[in-house]
Design goal:
This protein is α/β, with parallel strands linked by helices. The protein is built from seven helices and seven strands. A seven-stranded parallel β-sheet has the order 3-2-1-4-5-6-7, with helices on both faces. Bound molecules: NADP nicotinamide-adenine-dinucleotide phosphate (NAP).
């Protein structure tokens, strides 16, 4: 039996990249996984197929984040799907992973970019948690996917980094708020991970090597590197850790 048998997890942005890795890993530990996505049907089907091949249980929940009504539509679909699976509306693990990047130095930032990044990466996440507290069982887990750009200066994406800084602050406050319910709240901060998000930065051997050189291990991270850490934070073994932002960057820029 896996460490998460009998648990239900919602992983946002799980159709691709790090979220797909997390969804697969939690399903391997026998959690029932709600695979949230924004609209990429081919990608979400691939995640579901991989989980099924690995003997896991999962279903898809579509909801575009960062638009009016996003959170309500996500939970309405989640609860419908859980009912279809013969389960109640409760969840045990909420992984806030969906996010967008946005390269812009200070002189390139526009109000539109600022609003869009905060809407998807920060605003929707806060209200997703606020609404999700009705569903999250006592003793549950909230895991926020942050970024090493909150520790290492990354002026190339100043607003993106700010959205993740806000997420770290939220993680700390929420951990204290939810302690009485036995819910742990932590963040993980990846460095460069091989996903669509930074594909354009890995187009030549030279720029790929430059990304790899951020890590003391001289490689770009894989979604599975992050998923292992999230699986630990989701399990009972991590019950005494809360309010922390765990660096998950392969020692980037130590
Ligand atoms: P990705 O490969 O671009 O995948 C993004 C996922 O989020 C997809 O499932 C996508 O759904 C979903 N998504 C994006 N915008 C959405 C929206 N507005 N509404 C609903 N769903 C949306 O990203 P990733 O690289 O795996 O990144 C995952 C998380 O890790 C993000 O929070 C990111 O900031 C963080 N992170 C990534 C890296 C890295 O190097 N990759 C480094 C540090 C932190 P669809 O497939 O339907 O579009």
């Amino acid at each position: 039996m896996g460490a998460l048998v009998g648990k239900t997890a919602l992983v946002t942005g799980a159709s691709r990249g790090i979220g797909r890795g997390i969804a697969r890993r939690l399903a391997q530990e026998d959690a029932l996984v709600a695979v949230h996505y924004g609209g990429n049907e081919t990608a979400v089907q691939r995640t579901l197929d991989l989980i099924a091949q690995e003997g896991g249980r999962a279903f898809a929940v579509r909801a575009e984040l960062g638009v009016p009504g996003d959170v309500e539509s996500l939970y309405a679909r989640l609860e419908d799907e859980l009912a279809r699976q013969g389960a109640g509306p409760e969840i045990d693990i909420l992984v806030n992973n969906a996010g967008i990047s946005g390269s812009a130095r200070i002189h390139e930032v526009t109000p539109e970019l600022f609003d869009r990044l905060f809407a998807v990466n920060t605003r929707s996440l806060l209200f997703l948690v606020q609404r999700g507290l009705k569903n999250l069982r006592d003793g549950g887990r909230i895991i926020n996917v942050s970024s090493a750009s909150t520790r290492v200066a990354y002026p190339e994406s100043v607003v993106y980094s700010m959205t993740k800084g806000a997420l770290n602050t939220f993680t700390l406050a929420l951990a204290k708020e939810l302690g009485p319910r036995g819910i742990t709240v932590n963040a993980v901060s990846p460095g460069f991970v091989e996903t669509d998000m930074n594909a354009e930065k890995r187009t030549t051997p030279e720029n790929r090597a430059a990304l790899a050189a951020w890590s003391v291990f001289n490689r770009v991270g894989l979604p599975s590197d992050i998923a292992e850490i999230v699986a630990f934070l989701a399990a009972d073994a991590s019950r005494w850790i809360t309010g922390q932002c765990l660096d998950a960057s392969g020692g980037s820029r130590l």
